[in-house]
Amino acid sequence: MAGGHVTKRAKYKTTIKDPGTPGTLRMTLEKILFVPHNPKSAGKLDVEFRFIKGQKHTKEGSNKPPWLNLTNNQNGSFIFEFENFSDLQDCRDFVGKVLAKSGEVSEKPSAANPDEQLSAADLELRIKLLREDSELQKLHKQFVLSGVLTEAEFWATRKKLLDKEASKKTKQRLGFKSAMPDNKSTDGRTNKVTFSLTPEIILQIFAEKPAVHRAFLTYVPKKMAEKDFWTKYFKAEYIHSTRNSHAAAAEAAEDEELAVFLKQDDIVASEARKKIRRVDPTLDMEADEGDDYTHLPDHGIFRDGIKEMPTDSPYEQYRRSIPKEINRHAAVVLEGRVVDVELEDTKAVAEALARSKQESSTKGEANGDTSLDRLHRVSRMTEIEDLQGPNHLPLAPLSIKDARDYFDSQQANAFRTSGGAEQMECSLSMQEAYGSLRESISMIKAMGLKDPIVKPEVANQVFDDLTHSITTTKHHIGKNPQESILDRLPKKTKEDLLHHWTSIIELLRHFWASYPITTPYLYTKVNRLKDAMSQIYPQLEELKGSVPSDIRHQVSLLVRPMHQALDAAIQHYESDMQKRSAREAPITSKTPLSFCQYNGSVCCNSSEDSQLRNQFKSMNVSDSACASLLKSILCARCDQFSAELYRIESELRAVPVLCNSSVSTSSSQSQVAKVDFCSNVWDKCHNVSIASSPFASQGKGGILINSTSKLTDLWQSKAAFCDEFGGASDDGATCFAGGPVILNSSESLAPPPPSGICLEKIGNGSYLNMVAHPDGSNRVFLSNQAGKIWLATVPEEGSGQVLGIVESNPFLDLTDEVHYDAELGLMGMAFHPNFQENGRLFASFNCDKVQWPGCSGRCSCNTDVGCDPSKLVSHNGAQPCQYHSVIAEFTTNSTTTTNLSLVTSIRPVEVRRIFTMGLPFTSHHGGQILFGPEDGYLYFMMGDGGGIGDPQNFSQNKKSLLGKIMRLDIDSIPSATTITELGLWGNYSIPKDNPYLEDKELLPEIWALGFRNPWRCSFDLERPTYFLCADVGQDQYEEVDIVTKGGNYGWRVFEGPFLYNSSNSPVANKSSNSINAILPVMGYNHSDVNRVEGSASVTGGYFYRSLTDPCLYGRYLYADLYADAIWAGTESPKGSGNFSSTQLPLKCAHDSPIQCTSKPDSTSPALGFIFSFGQDNKKNIFILASSGVYRILGPSRCNYTCSRENVTDFNGPGFVPPSSLAVGSKLRRPLGVLLDFP
């Protein structure tokens, strides 16, 4: 369906009973055209849209065909019968948009009521409201006609405006899931109350209404059945909605239980106040006296500040409650209490929720449990700060109002904080206060922070003078206190600012009301809303830049809460999508799953396997044949091809695509898929009761119609059922046939390996790290182990030139700080994703506290991990924790150049120490750092600390950071007090989705564990979920792992795929059954590469994504430090996690800029030690060896054959076109500049 027309095959019918004329229906913005397939037929139609006044349609899932009935102005109609309901939906939406654009607002059913049919009076009312309210009309055009919201969604939040009896009823609370009853009066004496509850809605009612939660625990099942309880609850809600106080009093007098819901419960008020206090005051979108930015009827204030209605108006509660309800619901969503029980058991849910609240309130109070207390405090720190502000700071709400009011309220709060209710007297002049402040600072430097930093009277005086200066001189914005910043803005700017605020409120209403996402409909809606919110950011920045410089700061203050409200929503969206999206790279578990019997590569861990078991139990299926099929369907989540089975790119599915009889004979799936599995499911299960059926939650627009249902309750026939859930395995697609997906042998075979790798030598220097310049140029940063970083220019391939580097002029020289030894030195460097804007770069190195005073930190061997440093022996002449691992931040901002691409050197002055930790031994420190391409967090690879066989078993100790990969947020720097309280190792904070939230034993910094010495990791440029790390082995095996969140990679229980014998270690090993270890995906035995010495050390590399050598494309390259050997790992099938490795021969091009030295009796180049790999902005791969720098060339340069070379359209293993994203760009949206001083 294009934006300006839609074309579908259909039958045109003059009446319902008419068999119809087959043809093609084409709708444009002006006309409806129907052309019969048979030119001789008389059913040709050409009607202008201006004659169409409305539409009706049949219900999906009914026994009627998909009909669309368009009514015209003469009360006639045009009936079209479509091939399926999807075509009907497309045409219905198109008609609705055209009618709305022409002023005739058409109906569209809401998700909660697919059968909504609007009367002529309802249509007229909507049209009237749009004509009378220009702002409402503007919002309708902005969001409905553009497809962000449907008609039903838009009007669902304005039912009060549509209700003729609005003055007699209370507005239904917005931001609350659709759990309210559908009230229908049957006659003048009684009210019939009907309701439909899902487990998610019940849980949400408990979370948002503590009084209901407490009443449920008290009354069910001791005093009443669960059904009776909910009947009384909704009866009370109905009485509340009528605002009939006499009826409420009478009912309460007669019914003790009902009175619980009718009275003004102190529990509700108390809990609500607590929850509201946790919401960031910058998101308080309620209009306060003096605010002049709001103008919707919802706020009761016009743009000129005049009240629209008296305060005792029946609309008042509605007008002033919407933004608060958005905030309150957002807080509940973000609070996100998780109950580890089946949702279908309401009693168990209520009790589990009560336990979680009790645990939350008492957490940290237990004496002696310092680790739990630390985790609690860390989790508090990692809450989304945009919606959850500090509880201890006496801040005034920052709402959009005159800036002077804000400063005045801040000053008043400061006085209250320091002196209680008493007015403080301060006679200091500004000069005296400033002098006293300097004196206090000097005392701090000399004596520390034992006493208050600044005396209260001094701070208040300075604050008062600064406030006065800001509000009355440089930024004076009005002649009298009533004049607002808006009064000085150009009319167009003012209108745009007001409309942006209104638009944001509209989007946030719908966004927060859509959580938690439980249906495909909500999934699609939230995506639409997120896209719309993302488009507002550049508009706000453009708006700030358009105002005069003298008031830009005030406009920034107006825009700031808009930014923060959007940030909170989008960050929550990204966090939620990351959890539900995404099938990450499959893993190979060393221990089989207990419920889903899948072996080899799987997409489930043991926790997810347990959740599937609980879900299966909750379905309560009595028929064994049906139960067996349903179990296999649930376990399809664990199949290595689950991403294809669920096809999550297009929609959120609860059930995999089930194979039916239309499977193509050309399918890539084996013959096992060519069964009619969908029909088999229907035959075995169509008449079986299924509790919380996954079919019910996916079908019918995502609405769970009944908690227990049969397939025949929802679908009339097998054909209708398989039309909803069936699919063919053709065109490369995959379907589920009842067991693990098996591909044809021809498809599963890996493509033939390349003939070899062709190299050219472009430099003689020996380097440990290479990072492409973030500006996207042909320059790279190179560093050596001794501590120097250089900026070098990479020559064009075939130019005959060498690497452009000036050894005597390093970009950064850290040799005075770095301790350089066999396994110590400058181990890694990384540039901030926004380096071009902020100039931040980071270095990971080792230091010696004996030689450098700046080398000081906590020892990793400590009582928290059960280690005593005094009992460790010296290692290579060094005492335990003499050497430290450090991450330090540096900056280019100390230079005078504003264009960071022109900076060629910086001073070795640390801006900030990110991390410092003492090391128990002198080896196995990893040390690489890199930024995640999607999340923007810093990943830090750390080895087990050294010693043969990890003698202290640090790698499996979840309270130690040794043998781990860490994930740190270096953009949110906590205060020194917070760092000390949380026991952090430096200036960083914890990403809110690190795995410690699921595994309470883990330190919050840890992303993955069980490593010996991870040596070179990388993210695949085309598939960022593929995070591969090489891990150096002990005596037998070198491995490459796909690293996933919370993954345990086995050391020292395993060395590669083999059990490790640690009987000589002082600390006992864990059993192989006690950990869910993940097998490596590639690797080799020591004896395979060095049969004489047996030594080996793997060097991790990259997925090859350059087009220089098409036969290497999509393969993972890795090497051995000692052996001059390079392997290419090929994944087959793509996405399976199954790799086969091939050692490739090496040649050096005859025209290499620097001639290569050959091995004795061989044409292969003598590379020496292969330290690392590098990648430039063209995606070319480089080898950093002891003998120099080598670049991989096209195979023909060394007379290797590759059929794909010089062919523009090839399809290599896993080939996809190169990404259009600029190298170095940060995919996570940076926060906008909030304060823009002229």
TrEMBL record:
**Subcellular localization(s) per the UniProt record:** Cell membrane
- What cofactor requirement does the entry state? pyrroloquinoline quinone
Q: Supply the Gene3D superfamilies for this chain.
A: 6.10.140.1200, TolB, C-terminal domain
Task: Tell me how this protein sits in the membrane.
Answer: Lipid-anchor
Annotated GO MF terms = oxidoreductase activity
Q: Name one Pfam family in it.
A: BSD
Q: Give the record's GO CC terms.
A: plasma membrane
Query: What are the record keywords, sorted?
Result: Cell membrane, Glycoprotein, Lipoprotein, Membrane, Oxidoreductase, PQQ, Signal
Q: Does the keyword Nucleotide-binding apply?
A: no
Highest taxon above the source species = Eukaryota
- Ranges for the region named Disordered are 1-20, 354-373
Give every BSD domain span: 112-166, 189-241
Family, according to the entry, reads as follows:
Belongs to the PQQ oxidoreductase GdhB family.
Name of the featured protein: BSD domain-containing protein
Name the source organism.
Corchorus capsularis (Jute)
